[in-house]
Amino acid sequence: MGSGVYREGLAPFVEALHRTQQCLLRIRSHGLLAVVVLLGFAYTPASPAPVPIPPAPYDIPSISHFPESRHPHDIPRLLLLHDFPVKKTEGKAVDDSLKLARQKYKSLMKYIEDTEKIEVTALPISSQPQLFAFGESVFHFILIISSSVRQQIQEQTVKDILIWLDSGGEESQGADHEVHGYQKQQQQQQQLAGLRKEQPQEQQQQYYSPVEKSRSLILLLGPSASPSLLQLAAAAFGADALAPSFLQQQVADAFNAISPNKLGKKQQQQPHGTVFAVRDLLSGHPHVVTPLSEDELLLYSGTYHLGSLQVGCGGRHCGKEVLPPYAFPLLLAPPTAFAIESNVHSNSSNNNNRTSRMALASASQTRGNNRVLLLSGPDACSSTFTSLESIPLNGYEFKVANDRFCTEVVAWALNRRGVLRWSNVKHQKVGNGDSHMYTVGDQLRFSVDLHELKGGSWHPFEGNDVQLEYSLGDPLIRRFLQRQNASPTFSTEFKAPDRAGILKFVLRHARVGYSSLLMHSLAPLRTPRFDAAERFHLGGAFYYFVVIVVLLAITEIRTAEQEGMRRPLASRHANERSPSSSEDEDAADRALSFRVYTTKAKDAGGDSRPQHVVDKPIVWGPAVMPLSAIIDCQDKEAARTACRSRSDVRGVWECFVLKGVLSNAECQRIIESAESQGFEYWAEETDTAASMSTSVESANSESGADDRSERSENVSSSSRLSKKANHNYRSAHTLEVEHPDLAEVIWQRVGNLVVKEVHFSPDDAERFERDLEGTWEACGVNSTLLFARYASGENFGPHTDGCTIKDFNCRSLWPMVIYLNTPETGGETAILKESQKDLPFKTDAAGRFTADPECVIYSCKAEVGNALLFYQAQMHEGRPVGNGSMKYIIRTDIMYRRKELLFTTPADKRAFALWQEAQLLAEKGETDAAAQLFRQMTKVSPELAHYYGM
Question: pLDDT tier at 491 (50, 70, 90 boundaries)?
Fold first, then answer.
């Protein structure tokens, strides 16, 4: 939203202040209700913007390929102006001219007449043809062939041709989607009813043909072209002031000269080097002309022109002259070419050999998609050159590509190559395809079909540089349109900007050699309706502040007379009051403040609280895996006499390895019993795709989660949170078993080797917690055992284990990992430094989260029967298991009891249970329910509440 609602001038603001003043005068009698009405309705949003013109229906399908259709009476016509030596005999001049043109330019005329079905009208260049009739153009194309000064074009004909060229064309090549466009489409559908039956899908698209509006001028000017024609070429490529740069001279090249043996008599009589090979053809634009291959060349004989080198100069550096942005060279002379001195059309200012700027063929395209082609050597497209298939040069045989070159450049000039069109414009609100009522903040989608004319049929355009603008005068959003697979549809989605008004979509595409596209489609944005607008805006913060201050001032004035009586009464109640609900509320507030403090301490790198990862049923061990099936009498006797040892880890407080806790046979039977019961994945796989893309930060937030943190007995089932599986952080299958008998056997074997007594005091800042103050003694092994199986490549990222809390005086402090087998490779348990808690996780080649190698203190190899013990706040990591290996472990704890028991009454135990539930609710954000539990705890055991600082 933002401040877009407040852009309607000062009148709404003055009206709002006047309304505020009236409401404040009546606030004594109406009280708080008047304030609510004032805040909710004092300002009325601006009126909505006009409804946009709807685009094409959103359910119209896109069409990939379809042929170009023409109206029966729409026959393209070409005017041929020539200087052929034809006898002026009535009735035969036109026929003789066409016959001579077909003989001299056989392949060119065959393409125009036979392939494109264009009607050709041939007239002498000295005649004055009629280009317009009844306000309409008679011809679509004009072809001028001149190589002699015997016939001069009239000045009026040059002016008429320029007027004819400027009056044609259209920048937007596509069917309009407004009302007149729909009417035109309906007329076309009625006229082409028979074609609709054969191609029903084609009529769903509006049709545009470049022949209908664009016009083309093709100039084939030889060495003796008249100055008027050069003036026409200069005007077509730019201003008339550039005409001197188009004065042509004969060009020759002695290094690339072609032997005249295979050429005509005319070429054999010319000086050596005037017929030469050319290879510097326009590259990178196959929609205009196909680049030459290594074994191809072009034959050229004629003149050169200057001034049309706007787009590159081949493979060498050259200067550029100021020209229209749509002029570009097609064919450049070789670096070794030079101009032959001639007195024809030469003067002191232009008689120079600037060979680096010689152009042999150039093209230009106006904004209206009218095209101009200039070829300074008509012989290059004559039958003499186009009939040749190959020719030797410098000892090698090269293919002659004149036929293909002339056909392609003329096809481009006739709008048969590099022609684009748009159709099927759609824009709508995402999720509501038939809605075109756009509001600020909506998600909008725009799509359009773009086709390119290739070989007489329309194919999907394959460009990747089509841009769309959403503008209000100036563009507010500019986005690239993305093509959908192989379809012609280009689309994009974006959020509507915070600018209400008459906006429109603008698609403008102008590239070298392609017909330019320009499309406008109205899509106004309006402000939200009154019932959909936000009640409070950041821009009105000052207004809200003034209203609240005035309200407080009036309230203070009304109660000022009674304040002297209220204060003594309040002090008397304060001295006599007993515990009440207000005290409970204060205690709850203090408890919530304490929870916020501990959460901040945790985020700062302190010890983490227990987190409940997943809620799974616990199996009763004596029933599914009896102790007699795991450990027999012989194993028990062997266990009594077995030599067990303890190996401390240097640099880590009370971290050690116990060897020989279980025998190999016992471990094997435990694995078989666990496999027969069945393992399950450690977490619920609710969204595997989401879990695979979980960021490193989310893994850091889970680093305090424990394998077995869900085993707390005093936690209600409603507070147990199920998190999505993160395969990159942890991938294991687990089985949780309640087995007091097996725990007792393990305790008998390790009881003499563990930390028997530990003392916590406020002086030990690293390990001290409010709940741990005092001396604790080891009392046994946690009877809840977690069996874990890690397959090849599975791991457990850096984490710290939580604790199992039985009651206020009994909890786990030292986690114990018992290895049931020895993997061939991998599966080590890495003990990490405290600094790892403040560092982000790294990822290995497989994308698994791992610790910083510099933070690894000790790496414990998984050996069958051994056990690793460490303090509960110690960060560690389970390394990935090697290929073809498996890893089985038992995860349990050494339980400790407070030496001097505290809060042992039933009321204290119940209050401690309430405290734990309130903690979990506060962590989940359910502050209201947590506050109620804190109040109950304060009432049940005030001493315990005081112990926790409440």
Answer: very high
Q: Residue 616 in 3-state DSSP?
A: coil
Which of 809, 838, 822, 831 has its CA nearest to residue 898? 809
Nearest to 306 by CA among 355, 344, 267: 355
Q: Helix, strand, or coil here: 304?
A: strand
pLDDT in tens, 102-161: 889 999 999 999 888 899 999 888 888 989 888 888 898 999 998 877 788 888 998 999
In the numeric block, the tokens 């041939």 are attached to: 122
Q: Tokens representing 731?
A: 């991938």
CATH of domain 611-902: 2.60.120.620
Task: Give the CA distances from residue 372 to residues 281, 368, 509, 620, in Å, rounded to whole numbers and listed in that order.
Answer: 18, 12, 20, 91
Q: How far apart are CA 355 and CA 918, in angstroms?
A: 90
For 14-43, write each residue's pLDDT tens digit.
Answer: 455 555 555 444 544 444 434 433 334 333
641: Cβ–Cβ under 8 A, 6 or more apart, which residues? none
Task: Decide the pairing of beta strands 216-221 and 141-146.
Answer: parallel
Residue holding tokens 């229906």? 57
Residues 526, 51 contacting (CB under 8 angstroms): no
Give the torsion through C-alpha atoms of 581, 585, 586, 589, to 10 deg. 170
Residue 228, strand partner residues: none
The C-alpha atoms of residue 660 and residue 819 are separated, in whole angstroms, by 10
- Cα(336)–Cα(324) distance, integer angstroms: 28
What residue ranges do the domains of the chain occupy?
Answer: 4-46+532-556, 77-166+215-342+353-413, 418-526, 611-902
DSSP for 187-222 reads HHHHHTHHHHHH-TTGGGS----TTTT--EEEEEE-
- pLDDT of 298: 93
Q: How far apart are CA 282 and CA 948, in angstroms?
A: 83
The CATH fold of domain 77-166+215-342+353-413: Rossmann fold (3.40.50)
Please provide the CATH number assigned to the domain covering 418-526: 2.60.40.1930
What secondary structure letter does DSSP report for 703?
T
pLDDT of residue 351: 42
E strand spans, 90-214: 119-124, 132-133, 136-137, 141-146
Q: Please state the separation of Cα 552 from the chain's center in Å.
A: 51
Rounded to whole angstroms, the Cα distance separating 618 from 737 reads 6
Q: What mean pLDDT is reported for the chain?
A: 75
pLDDT > 90 in the chain, percent: 23
